[in-house]
Amino acid sequence: MANKDNNKDKMTLEEAGRKGGETTARNHDKEFYQEIGEKGGKDRAEQHEDDDNN
């Protein structure tokens, strides 16, 4: 993890993720999260089916 003393102007990976998540939450509504959740669920189900077929 980045040391803030040595990298004064840089943010940690954790801080960048939090900032990006907060920005996404401000710019999108509940429907957006439902859609991406559904897409992810379908993809995961397909992966699981592929795992079962091997």
Q: Calculate Rg over CA atoms.
A: 18 Å
The proportion of strand residues reads: under 5%
How can the largest sheet be summarized? Answer: none
Average pLDDT over all residues: 88
User: Which runs of at least 5 residues are low in confidence (pLDDT < 50)?
Assistant: none
Alpha plus pi helix count: 2
Organism: Pseudobacillus wudalianchiensis
Protein name: Stress-induced protein, KGG, repeat-containing protein
Region (Disordered): 1-54
InterPro entries: Stress-induced_KGG_rpt
Describe what this molecule looks like in 3D.
The structure is a single chain. It contains two helices and no strands. The chain is mainly α. The longest helix has 24 residues, at 30-53. The relative contact order is 0.08. The model has no long low-confidence stretch (mean pLDDT 88).
In a few lines, what is going on in this structure?
The protein has helices spanning 13-27, 30-53.
State the main characteristics.
54 residues; mainly alpha; 0% strand; Stress-induced protein, KGG, repeat-containing protein; Stress-induced_KGG_rpt
